[in-house]
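Sequence in, structure out. First:
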Amino acid sequence: MREFILAKATALLESKQFSVTNFVAGHSCFDLAATRGNLTLLIKAFDNVDSLREEHALELKKMVSLFNAVVVVLGNKTKASDLRRGVIYERYSLPTLSIDSFKDLLNEKMPSIKSFKGKEIVALDADKIRERRKELGLTLGELASKVDTTIESVHRYEKGHATSLQVAEKLEKALKTKLVEQIDLFKGVPIKIENVFDESIEDEALGKVYDLGLKLALFKHAPFRASSPSSQGLVISKGTSKQDVKRKAVELRKSSIAFGAHGMVIANKTRLTSVEHVPIVDEDELTTLSKFKDLMFLLKKRES
């Protein structure tokens, strides 16, 4: 079923003029990277979305911060139930959808219902509730009576609190206006993450890169070992044997294209200088560089 979800998602994205890159073979924290203009989507798919691992979710959150990407987890079900069309779920704070909901999203039919702790809730236009209530000359108590709730609840709605779809529909009927807000995932979902960048780099080679003035975010479950901020635009892998270096370069090129970044594979005692236009840099070469711009000069030269 996961394969079906990925095939369907790829077809949907390509039909909407996204450029799609597949990372499934690398067992990455994301399966697809899709770009269109300034929008980058990272897709992770499961049959059961409860299979998402916390360490993978953490690295996906790092990528949201690094690449201004939008992460979407796709699936068919949770341990408790099937994912419903038109409902946004969450796994480790990452938006989670059914493939049908994803199709609607790409067709600009934005969802409005969110599943939160087993309950389905909607966000309301708080200002419109207050303005419309006053236009109709209703007190808080009178509106509360019309929707069979308390004055305190209506006050909370006017302060921006979410509620059930049933209550929202009663409010819309009483105030004769649309109040439920749609959720535009393409604008990104606020995700809080601390320590995107690593302060202590134990890997000696990456430490040399860090010493050139780059901030580095380290990864264990991505198609690359480290990334700089998007402003510096560099994704890094490490290779061991000649064959491993070549394999890492081919994989890194996909990441480089998907994220619009330069790529670099660090190797030890190699004569290779580039593979598939991806620069290969020997660890000893890093010691000859003193500034980030020296590294970028070297990379651009080897990319050609």
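Second:
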Amino acid sequence: MTIRKLETGRPGMKHVTWGSAGRILVAEEDESYASTVAAVLQGQGYRVDVAPSAAAALERLRQDRYGLVLVHYGLPDRTGVALLEQARGEGLLEGVAELLFTGKPSVEAPADVTVMKKPIQMQHLVQQIHSMVGPPEGPGPPPPSGSDRRRKSMEARQARARYGAKIELALYVTLPWPSSLRAQSNLSRVLSGVPDGEVRLSVCDLAREPERAERDNVLFSPTLVKVWPEPKMWILGDLSESAVLTDLLMMCGVSPSARA
């Protein structure tokens, strides 16, 4: 069977929520790669668990419900296809989207399993997952309470006093790549509607600032990072979806004007 191409959309897309289906299980033996994928998806708002083997993935599926399983074909104890077949046989994948990734030129997989070929650009992976299960919706994780809320409020006041801003962003680019130039232009257009001093922005060259990129878990460009306030968040690609940027800013108390 030939590897199917990346799908850009799917009828009947299932919208996931923080309460149940907004969870993704990544079955991948390579710890470094799995951590990178998890960080990117968590930055998009998903909750992610990682299993290093088929056995560990099955155990996770028996304990919890997921909206999507992202499985590497070459797991150490069996193939990703065999894992999916057993999980299906046990009734663990009802209502769960299935995404298989592989470095092989072709694999035999069920017709309703989406297949992506490595190396995978993270931007394309996020787009594919959005097309399959939709972006996370709902209120997100519960707000901090008690002393934790007071601590975070104090940290926010201290940071504002230090930076004089409500949010700190870092845009990682590789110039003069067109996608990086578009990201700069799109971000500037949105920020033009923000009052002066509310956003602290750094534009970083990925090739020249590898240590900073490593601290921010950035491996490719263009990537926008919400550095502060925590938790960090990542937006991948050329930032052409202005609504995503606006939502990110408003979440931190910054309201761009309509002209953005």
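Remark: The first helix runs from residue 31 to 43.
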